[in-house]
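User: Second chain of the day. Same drill as before.
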Amino acid sequence: MSEEYYWDIANATEMGRYLTRKEIGLLRFFFQDSRGIKSCLDIGCGSGRFSLPIRELGVRVTAMENDLLPLSKLQNKGREIFTILGDAICLPFKDSCFDCIVGIEVISYLPNIDTFLQECHRVLNEHGYLCLTFSNRSSYKRYLHRLRSQFRIFYRQSFAGIKAALEKQGFQLEAISGFNWLPFGRGSNSKLIRVFERLEVLLCLGRLPSISPWVFLVARKREQLE
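Assistant: Same format as last time:
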């Protein structure tokens, strides 16, 4: 297939590669530290940026996307990944069928976060895990984004708001890490990106999730909604 997929291009920049390194690193740390995860649903899978590394860890992956182009590209890559066209707020799966759900850079595009979390809760097994990232409006990048971009769907959720939504829908927050403190947009190829990436690690900025531009979190399904 010769047609280009936007996110493959966007993630090929220096900044795109930084984000991919960071997100895959966080996911690998979670999967290698967690026991008993055999099945995973990757929502908004694209052409397999995260589905493929998760599959390499021995996890059975179902990759879901609402766009046929990236799904076709992922199918051509093989690796025993089941692909399905679907909607994140109406998951086409039966109850309690996954050990883990991954939704990287997904929440900002959804019209109703509560409905999404309800659906995740429904299809997760007992004590199943939910791994998400979101852009945090309680960060300096919210203001940079408003100056630079015409798109207003990003940086709408706060750290406190996401925590409250998870609790409301039956999840318990287990791990959090902040990232993407770098003062660059995704299209940047600045030579300073590696420098700022090292500073982010040296200054332990991942320990400041409440004000981090982007946040990676792991939540676990409680037995019953209160």
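The CA atoms of residues 132 and 190 lie 27 Å apart.

User: Great, on to the next one.
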